[in-house]
């Protein structure tokens, strides 16, 4: 849109809230062996809407006895599910994919209410990818013999303990459950404590699709529940997405056991802009890279490296573009930046903002942007003048905060981009093919986006080098984690 | 030192050194160990590598890693094949080294030598095919070209099994070289002479300096340092005890180093398994590349 049409004088967007007339129960139990049951722990916690701090519902907290029960149900179901004909497994997964598509709107609204992400994203990105993940993996069920080079007799691993984060609650559930079931495993999934709702709704869909009891069990709770689950001796495989710190604890707990472990952990991914890039597209790529989902993205392009010759102009245009992002009610279809997922996370982000300023970097955000009174909010922000050793340039912030740095030569860009214990993703923006390929081959990252950023697909393997984790999820390569 | 009188000639008992960066240094610690054969006779001396030797070897390997990875598969294949050629030329010597250390029949040792040479030949053929077998184009639902390409791990640590001393070591090293990684390997602790002989073969086979680095020493002493070395991208091992496997996994957690503490799920003479693409997978890191399609 021409700039003139977005003048300061008006042209404000009218609110366009998505309706919220969906059913939410007052309280939820645990989904074990095909039924919703009250937690034996007798403990519960509230799930709140981070955009207004209102309680949405009460969630059961699974204790050790509940974890036992869930693992036992999964063990029992494994005996039959692992021997179920592959095409039958496929048909369940196709059925699930269809129901997700049919209930997409409801799932998107719930996801946005419970987690704070803009409805535009949950509707257009998260939920479609969830359906695609089940549809894609459904097709693998009867083709596994051809999936892993050299493994002509692939077998399921067994009971999978899957622990997922709050940034893409339903999408992470799908990334974990779909390949596990396709390969003939059974599952005990634990969603993050701030975002249990859509996983529980997914349980309803499994039930509706007549998935045999115990094949997927969903237990809710916080870190302690997760710890019981991954340390349970009845578990054969652990799949975790979350922080590097917790990932390392899990790796230690599983060392010396028979458990197969995959980890999708943190990142501090570089996004590299060369002077010869298509600048307008690169700006959009930077926006998608860091401000998508409030920056609660493990592969976020949180370190921006701009070729020195275009730095000032690029920053000016980025500032302008950032000021056009609309922050507010996540259920509003025009919202670009939703709520921060929790008070805890907001405090962590704010601490990094203070830290960046103390370290001497220059903070840029649009202070005219008003923040709602209730809920957890952080303006899209970038820092310029960031020193390479600064904490905001090295540590994962997991919020809408970008560190802008410069480079002079491709060699320097490579060196600085790779100078991180992480290696999840990287972005390259250039119009020169040979340079893009040279950079792509030398960046130590599991996903390299050339002239794009933050694209995901069920067919495309996702996962990192170095301390960003072990293994891949999605695509042909992702199946290896669920087969032996 | 025991020596054997043979027509009044005193045998020259060799002290075998480490192989590092294309050179044959002694251990910086100055330590060496007697190698005795099954009958208790001393057949040679080997260096007992220290933690510092391991660190030096990793530094050397790191310097060689990018150059090796960037060579064409065709070129790496020829170098692996050259290793097989040189090993073939020293077939008797390798066989004798196996017998000297471990005892047993010459025929059995010869089978191990031959299997080792054949393993190198087979792996030479993987270098320029691994991308095609382990990589693929991903059919994504959007206007993108999306492909997954296997990349070498970088610097791979190898802890070889006690036996088979030659075939076990080469079975773990060759996939690394074939897939573009460089290696720091600790050879069989009780039967180390084939390990150092392999170093001599590498040194005369166009293997660039630093691409293969071979240590002899104590497994229990060096294992924790292999596990926790932050500049090793992966550690592959075979023949470890349950306690050692756990130690390797726990030590690797801090840097999230990729470990395979028991690669020997099938016997080393199972050629179908050890030359299949399945054994290459642990040596690979998958990189997925996206690019928009359109003008």
How would you characterize this protein structure?
- The complex is a heterodimer of chains A (484) and B (295).
- With 484 residues, chain A is an alpha/beta fold.
- Chain A has 2 domains: 27-265 and 468-482, 3-Layer(aba) Sandwich (Aldehyde Dehydrogenase, Chain A, domain 1); 270-457, 3-Layer(aba) Sandwich (Aldehyde Dehydrogenase, Chain A, domain 2).
- Chain A has 15 helices and 20 strands.
- In chain A, strands 13-14-15-12-11-17-18 form a 7-stranded mixed sheet, with helices on both faces. A 6-stranded mixed sheet of chain A has the order 8-7-6-9-10-20, sandwiched between helices. A 3-stranded mixed sheet of chain A has the order 1-5-4, with no helix packed on it.
- The longest helix of chain A is centred in the first third of the chain and has 22 residues, at 119-140.
- Chain A starts with 26 loop residues before the first strand and ends in a 6-residue tail after the last helix.
- The model of chain B has no long low-confidence stretch (mean pLDDT 95).
- The radius of gyration of chain B is 20 Å and the shape is globular.
- In chain B, α2 (73-89) runs antiparallel to α4 (106-124), α3 packs antiparallel against α7 (193-203) and α4 packs parallel to α6.
- The longest helix of chain B has 20 residues, at 51-70.
- Chain B is α/β, with parallel strands linked by helices.
- A 5-stranded parallel sheet of chain B has the order 10-9-8-11-12, with helices on both faces. In chain B, strands 3-5-4 form a 3-stranded mixed sheet.
- In chain B, α7 (193-203) links the parallel β9 and β10.
- Chain B has one domain (15-292): Aldehyde Dehydrogenase, Chain A, domain 1 (3-Layer(aba) Sandwich), CATH 3.40.605.10.
- Chain B has 10 helices and 13 strands.
- The chains are: A alpha/beta (484), B alpha/beta (295).
- Chain A binds chain B through residues 132, 148-151, 244, 247-248, 251-252, 254-256, 263, 265, 421, 436, 440-441, 445-452, 455, 457, 459-463, 465-467, 469-470, 472, 475-477, 480, and chain B through 133-134, 136, 138-142, 144, 146, 148, 151, 242, 245-246, 249-250, 252-256, 258, 276-281, 285-292.
